[in-house]
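Q: What does the assembled structure look like for these inputs?
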Amino acid sequence: MANAIGLERTDYKGATSTLCPGCGHDSISNQIISAAYDLSLPMTQVVKFSGIGCSSKTPAYFLKGSHGFNTVHGRMPSVATGAMTANTDLIAIAVSGDGDTGSIGFGQFKHLIRRNVPMVYIIENNGVYGLTKGQFSATSDEGQELKYYGLNELPALDLCLEAIIGGCTFVARSFSGDSKQAQTLIKAALSHRGTAVIDIISPCVTFNNDPKGNKSYDYGKKNEIALHQIDYMPKGYVHPREEITADYAEGELIEVDMHDGSTIRLKKVDQDHDPRNRASAINTLEKAQRENLFMTGLIYYEEPRPTFDETLHLVDTPLSHLQDAQLRPSQDALASLMQSFM
Amino acid sequence: MAVNIQPDVQTQFTGASIVNDFALSVATKNGSGSQTSNAVIIRSLFRMGIPVSGKNLFPSNIKGLPTWYTIRANKDGYIARSATTEVAVCFNQDTAAEDIANLKSGGVVVIPSDWKWGQSRADVTYYELPVKELLTQAQIGTDFRERIANMVYVGAVAYLFGLPLDMINRALLDQFNNKAKPAAMNYAVIELAYNWSRDNLVKDDPYKFETMNGTAGKILIEGNEASALGSIFGGVSVVAWYPITPSTSLVDSIMENLSLRKDPETGKNTIAIVQAEDELAAIGTIIGAGWAGARSLTATSGPGISLMAEFTGLAQFAEIPCVIWDVTRMGPSTGLPTRTSQGDLLFIHFLSHGDSRHPVLLPGTVKECFEFGWRALDYAEQLQTPVFVMSDLDLGMNLWMSDPFDYPDQPIQHGKVLDKERLAQFLEEKNEWMRYRDYDGDGVGYRTLPGTDHPRAAYFTRGTGHNEAATYSERSDDWMKNLERLRHKFETMRDLLPQPIVDHDLSKKIGILSFGSNDSAIIEARDLMAANGVQTNYMRVRAVPFAHNVREFVLSHEHVYVIENNFDGQMAQLLRMEISEDTRHMVSLACGDTLPMSAQWVIDQIMAHQ
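A:
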């Protein structure tokens, strides 16, 4: 069935994946495809970015009609910053991994967030280096055991916590095995103005899928605690509001109005979590870390602050499309400058 | 044979003047504010029509270490660093003894009267100034005392060597952006010192400044500002950088001149300036910007270049335009951050792992800093590759006299970019479009920009192996084809990039080959050698890869001297790498002593081999 711009879902696909069969990353690519199709994203306006690693190969496997840039390890954020500064009309989807973001790219990740470069930043987090065959990453859990590398005795970095502390205004965690939630969060993130971080736990079927390990499918399926049931309603979606609100007691339904007119609706399941409260979001993550809980959902959201390009006070025309007359000052301007140096 | 630029004057002054042909070196402590006083002297000389140059030898610290500023006046227009000092203004007690010892015979010392400086030399003239008393008399508060103390030597120098006070006052107002109050406070001290000198000192040396007509129509500018202006007129639209000496003032200067690139109606910018978290992010940002269609640059120096190595390889291999200014300083390692060098030539040319090679532009004058500023952005887009411009601390941070800059003589070049319409036309004509296919035989493909609203516009950019269609490939034939095309692109550069400046007369047997800021020293050295019967040809290389006539120049001389300001003779190494014939007649003269090159060094080196 064609979407609003006349494209089929298959049009949003990419090349055939070369990852291991069953890789969590492939399900995330599928959710990106579905989200883009459902939202009728114009592929020519989308740019895909990635660094290096298994996760960073995936932009070739979705949205073949979009320009993509597979950059260098950990430094995709700076490339994306440059591209999104050059052309503010673009819609950016970035894919990174836990090695790419949590280790070599940790500084660039934090600075991307600090600058609030408008883009969706998905971390396909499997807690292991797959492409180099199974080393620990900075998000590997303390006490975790791997086949060749033994016991990890170092604490894990929580990339969502890091994102919130860094000033990110949209922070979510999901599970590649929870396709509906992942897809909904991707849609919501695409509506966000600014950097939107989604940390998706994505099991590595080859190197880190021991049911005991907390980045495995078994563990995720058994232990995922959704902070809420999440729905995304695009702009113009009309729902009988009274009917919905009538079903829920006070405080059990949170509606977040997005910048582009869409809405995220969060229904309470059994956790008390208001993603609009920064301190409570941090508490939730710290509790999850302390008690080894796998909590997913929209963890933190705040009203968008100015995006990076806005802080640069640029002309409305994207810099990539300025006319030569806007790029080169006049002959008179040079003549008067030269006079000032005489 | 010895040829000396500044013959020693008689120890006893006989009355014959030396006019507009001597170097005055001011020794102060860093952070004492002597930049203002020195700028006032140099600008006054420039306005008097005397060809002048200034070399700032400053330490890498905030305050306290010694600094020297050498002002050379030269009636013949030579503006290289002078190897000798005729007048030493000793306003740093820590270095006074050494400064006096280094002075040439017959020289002049200007020094505070209450200082001890070791043993006096009988062959120099001393002028002692009561600095403390004059400052007290001028009622200068303690807050300003240290800075304003430097104005005492300005007044004394003005009297002793003949700088008119009205010129000084005008230069002061310029220096303080026409703010009357600070200018007046400084001028009061200058005038007081001038009058005191007139009433108390007896002129007993040959050195004099006299008004002449040697600077009419000329400008005085630092290379980094020239580079910044060139970039602004070249249409740079994204600048990402991380501060590092001596390149910092290049980006500072873009910011200071940003008004040239504000939309007249909205006041909004057409240049994004991104201060990155490090040089890794700086180059990543300009690569992203170049990929997306902006004209982008970064400015850095050696340590920053080291950090940019991996990304440079990506930009070369994925074929993304961007410009990297390397304002070089002394390495290896942190080295001497405030001393000049041409030591990055080989490194930037071959930067990154694998078979990496990049074009390097080599401006030799401030005028070329401006010209290569805009041309580099054109070349980057035309060649779809990172373009390096190697300036240096001497060129970038010192004041140079120059002819005014010429407005770009051609429209902005964007190279082969297919927008929606052009892509449609291309597809119609060729029935295909492959990002990395060489359709024109010059090694450069056609690119589309992200956001191009055409269903066939997208391609995947990667640093991994790819075929002509930009698809991932590990096939040997794809890899070889790609590398061969890149090599072909490299050959295209030889004709496209700035050609050498050549003075080649087949009757002369000696050739000098050099590049960059050594130009002024070589021009002066050649004149003096010619006056002494040693005729030379000169080629100044302005880009790597070499133009085709470089080989011919090297092979057509009995002796070729490759002159450069680094320790290992990197240009000579590059020439030997490129020229397969016997080059035993080529001698590497590499200086690398941390100072701007002097004509005397060039002469001494060449004469030693003749």
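The longest strand of chain A covers residues 294-301.
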